[in-house]
Amino acid sequence: MEHLRSREQFSAVMAGAPVAKTLHFALHRCALGRVAAASKKPLFASADAWLGVLLPKRWARRAVTRNAIRRQIYAVAGEHATVLASAALVVRLRREFSRQQFVSASSDALKRAVRAELQQLLLGAGAPPALAARPRHAPAPLEASNDVV
Prior knowledge:
Blueprint: E1 2-3, H1 7-14, E2 20-21, E3 25-31, H2 32-38, E4 50-54, H3 63-79, E5 87-93, H4 108-126, H5 129-133
Parallel strand pairs: 1-4, 4-5
Antiparallel strand pairs: 2-3, 3-5
Helix pairs in contact: 3-4
């Protein structure tokens, strides 16, 4: 899995709406073929999975916390690398983890919470777009009536 490095790569992936969201994270995804066709110079040198991490200081003030979250993102994404192949992804922190609940900047409880939420996020990203957008519970089938019109 390659890491996104340039501003152009991040901009290309984040141009669309998030494909999956959890309480603290948003996931942006872009197919590599679509990005390469749109630009003259290829942004992504290989067809492997590409991953970028966006952790604003606004939502994770301490560097220790940002680094712990970043390590968890790369570890969980590495476990899902086969499902995420040939796509560019950006995982974005969109809300602060409660300092009252996670007092330590890099506690095991924080790491477990981040890991669980990331696995939920990436499971939504691994499904094809039509399946990911479908509601989890199918509506009840309509009952057939015996009325003659």
